[in-house]
Design a protein that fits this description.
Blueprint lengths: L2 H13 L11 H15 L7 H14 L6 H10 L4 H10 L1 H4 L1 H18 L16 H13 L1 H10 L5 H16 L6 H15 L3 H14 L3 H31 L3
Length: 252
């Protein structure tokens, strides 16, 4: 199948043929954008379409490309992502991109859900309480980062930074990683992509390459996920993300 034929098919499947409008005031840009996104990127690799959609929404949230989120939310629903999965993908970005960026993205998602007739409230996904969030979060953190590594990191923290380590365990891992719907592999993949989309976070990106490998994702999966981010974050941040993958996987 030719690239333009793939583009037409994915444009229909994902965007009902309406995202790249023929009556645009910039038809040449629309053709280039449609053919690259739909004919190249969405046609590349082995990720399931719902996985691609969740990664794209995380990339849009991290880069605060808010006006595009309703379109990509409707596309995610059309290609099989569940409403709960869409919400969880954005919730999960919170410790990495910040509360208000996620809140802004969720407002756009909620607008799209209303257009799609999604019934509220969605089922709750929390699995922790105020009394268990730290303990359960620390357990997940140790699974992902390695028990010895996390213990050493916590013990090495100076007294005036121990609260940050506690926040990391209870908030990042306790409040978010323990939630339902998305498994640990998908959550780690979203974490890596969100961090890479921010830019300037290469040490953390490398740490989460290792974490992804530890929970069962592969180098190829990481590259395919970053490829889905490329149209929305550009080549510099994409190449930096690939360099982080290379730095970890080439040494193994």
């Amino acid at each position: 199948m030719k690239r333009t034929e793939k583009a037409e098919k994915n444009n229909r499947d994902w965007f009902r043929g309406q995202l790249f409008a023929e009556d645009s005031l910039d038809p040449e840009f629309e053709d280039i954008a449609r053919n690259f996104l739909c004919g190249d990127v969405l046609a590349h690799g082995t990720l399931a379409d719902p996985q691609r959609a969740l990664i794209i929404l995380a990339a849009l949230a991290a880069s605060q490309t808010l006006n595009a989120i309703p379109r990509y939310t409707l596309a995610a629903l059309d290609i099989g992502a569940k409403p709960e999965e869409i919400k969880e993908a954005l919730y999960h970005c919170t410790p990495y991109i910040g509360l208000e960026k996620v809140r802004s993205a969720l407002e756009e998602v909620n607008e799209a859900f209303q257009k799609a007739g999604i019934t509220y409230p969605l089922a709750g996904q929390s699995t922790v309480t105020e009394d268990t969030r730290f303990e359960k979060g620390l357990a997940v953190q140790q699974t992902i980062g390695g028990e010895d590594n996390i213990r050493a990191m916590r013990e090495a923290a100076p007294q005036d930074l121990k609260h940050i380590q506690d926040y990391l365990s209870a908030y990042c891992f306790g409040d978010f990683y323990t939630r339902g719907t998305l498994d640990l592999k998908m959550r780690e993949l979203i974490t890596f992509c969100a961090i890479c989309c921010l830019g300037g976070c290469e040490p953390q990106a490398k740490a989460h390459v290792e974490a992804n490998l530890r929970v069962g994702n592969t180098r190829q999966t990481l590259i395919e996920a970053v490829t889905q981010c490329l149209p929305f974050i550009g080549f510099p941040r994409t190449l930096n993300a690939i360099a982080c993958i290379d730095a970890v996987t080439n040494d193994q």
